[in-house]
Specification:
Largest sheet: 8 strands, parallel
Order of helices and strands: HHHEEEEHEHEHEHHHHHEHEHEHEHE
Oligomer: single chain
Distance between the termini: 38 Å
Helix content: 40-55%
Bound molecules: flavin mononucleotide
Number of helices: 15
Radius of gyration: 20 Å
C-alpha cells in the first residue's frame, strides 16, 4: 500500500486484479477514444501561478455542493456495473465516501441496489437516474430513491442512445460474465476477484431485476436494457421528474452553453459539465475545455459541477478555478476499488486530497473556496 502514490498506481494494480472484461469496461471511451484522451490531456495544458511568502497555515478543503457540506469538492460519479470491479463494489465505495465526507452517487445500472447501499450507510447518498421507456419502472425508481432518503437525484441527459465502446463489443461484456473459455482463463488467475464474487449474491443489476416488468432473469435483462433507453427524452420531461422527486436535482451531461442555459431555466439545483467520461460522443470537447465558457454563461443562475479526466487533486483545483463548485471522479475510484476494495477507494480519495492540499498551499491560498481564475497563468 505504501508504494501506491498516484491514481495511475491504482490503475496498474486494478489491471492485474480485475478480469479484463470489466477493467476494459472502465478504461474505455467511445470509438477512437479521442474525447476520453482529451479529458485527461487538456488538464495538462492549464498552468497554476506559483506564489510565495504568504501565510499557508490552517488550510481547508471543506466547502458545499448543492448546499451539502463536503470535506472536499469531489463526489464519486455514478458508474454502472461497479459491483463487477469488486464484489459488493457499490456498497464498499459508498461506505468509503461516507467515511471520507464526500457524496457517493449510485447508478441506475449498478449491481448493488438502492436498498443494498442504504442498508450499509448511515448518511444519505445520491442516486443517478436514467430515463427508460418503461415509465412505471422510472417512477418506481424515483420513489425507491426517496424511500432510501437519497439527498439528490442526478438525472443523466447524455445517454438516450448508447455510444459504442469497441472493447466492450470485442469482450462480449455481460454481468455476470459468460463462462467462455477465454473468460474462465482470465478469471482463474484473479482469485481475489472470483472468491469475492463467489461469496456474494449480488451479481446482476439489482435495481432492475425483480422490479421491471418482463425482467425475471439475466438473459431477459440484456435485451431489455439495450431496448430501454428513451430516445424521446426532452426538456419537458425534466419537469415531471423534478416534481415527482421533490428534492435536490442535478442535471448531468451538459457540454454546451445553450443547453446549460436551458438547464438553468428548469429550476434544477446544479448541472454537471460532462461528456460521460468520453464514453458517448467521440469527438466532443473535453469537459475542462468548455467549463469556463459554460460557467460564465450561466453565472449564478445554477451551480456548476464538472467531471471527466480528473486524475489528481491538481485537476480538481483547475476545475474550481475555471468555475466549478464541485467535481466528480469516475475511473479514479473504480481503479481503487478494483485494486484494493474499500481501502482502495479511500486511497484514491486520500491521494487526491493530499495533492489538493499541497497545491493549494503552493498557490498561496488557504481555502479551497478562494481558488479562482486569477490563480491560473493565462
Ligand atoms: C465504467 C463507467 C461506467 C459509467 N456508468 C455511468 C452510469 O451508469 N451513469 C452515468 O450517468 N454515468 C456513468 N459513467 C460516467 C461517469 O458518471 C462520469 O461522467 C465519468 O466517469 C467521469 O469521467 P472520469 O471517469 O474520467 O472521472 C460511467 C463511467 C464509467 C467509467
Amino acid at each position: 500500500m505504501s508504494d501506491i502514490l498516484t491514481i495511475a498506481d491504482l490503475k496498474d494494480l486494478a489491471r492485474r486484479r480485475v478480469p479484463k472484461m470489466f477493467f476494459d469496461y472502465a478504461d474505455s471511451g467511445a470509438w477512437t477514444e479521442s474525447t476520453y484522451r482529451a479529458n485527461e490531456e487538456d488538464f495538462q495544458k492549464i498552468k497554476f501561478r506559483q506564489r510565495v511568502l504568504v501565510d499557508m497555515s490552517n488550510r481547508s478543503l471543506e466547502t458545499t455542493m448543492i448546499g451539502q457540506k463536503v470535506s472536499m469538492p469531489v463526489a464519486l460519479a455514478p458508474t454502472g456495473l461497479t459491483g463487477m470491479q469488486h464484489a459488493d463494489g457499490e456498497m464498499l465505495a459508498a461506505q468509503a465516501a461516507e467515511e471520507f465526507g464526500v457524496p457517493f452517487t449510485l447508478s441506475t445500472m449498478s449491481i448493488c441496489s438502492i436498498e443494498d447501499v442504504a442498508s450499509v450507510t448511515k448518511k444519505p447518498f445520491w442516486f443517478q437516474l436514467y430515463v427508460l421507456r418503461d415509465k412505471d419502472f422510472v417512477l418506481n425508481l424515483i420513489d425507491r430513491a426517496k424511500a432510501a432518503k437519497c439527498s439528490a437525484l442526478v438525472l443523466t441527459l447524455d445517454l438516450q442512445v448508447l455510444g459504442q465502446r469497441h472493447k466492450d463489443v470485442r469482450n462480449g461484456l455481460s454481468a455476470p460474465p459468460k463462462m467462455t473459455l477465454a473468460n474462465i482463463a482470465n478469471i482463474a488467475v484473479r482469485p481475489g476477484w472470483w472468491m469475492g464474487m463467489a461469496g456474494t449474491k449480488r451479481r446482476t443489476f439489482r435495481n432492475i431485476v425483480g422490479h421491471a416488468k418482463g425482467v425475471g432473469d439475466v438473459a431477459s435483462l440484456s435485451s431489455w436494457t439495450t431496448e430501454q433507453f428513451d430516445p424521446q427524452l426532452s426538456w419537458k420531461d425534466v419537469a415531471w421528474i423534478k416534481e415527482r422527486w421533490g428534492g435536490k436535482l442535478i442535471l448531468k451531461g451538459i457540454l454546451d452553453k445553450e443547453d446549460a442555459l436551458m438547464a438553468a431555466k428548469t429550476g434544477a439545483d446544479a448541472i454537471i459539465v460532462s461528456n460521460h467520461g468520453g464514453r458517448q460522443l467521440d469527438g466532443a470537447s473535453s469537459s475542462i475545455m468548455v467549463l469556463e465558457e459554460i460557467a460564465d454563461a450561466v453565472g449564478d443562475r445554477i451551480e456548476v459541477h464538472m467531471d471527466g479526466g480528473i486524475r489528481s487533486g491538481q485537476d480538481v483545483l483547475k476545475a474550481l478555478c475555471l468555475g466549478a463548485k464541485g467535481t466528480y471522479i469516475g475511473r479514479p475510484f473504480l481503479y481503487g476499488l478494483g485494486a484494493l476494495g474499500k481501502e482502495g477507494v479511500t486511497k484514491a480519495l486520500e491521494i487526491i486530497r493530499k495533492e489538493m492540499d499541497i497545491t493549494l498551499a503552493l498557490c498561496g491560498k488557504r481555502l479551497v473556496t478562494d481558488m479562482g481564475k486569477d490563480q491560473l497563468r493565462r
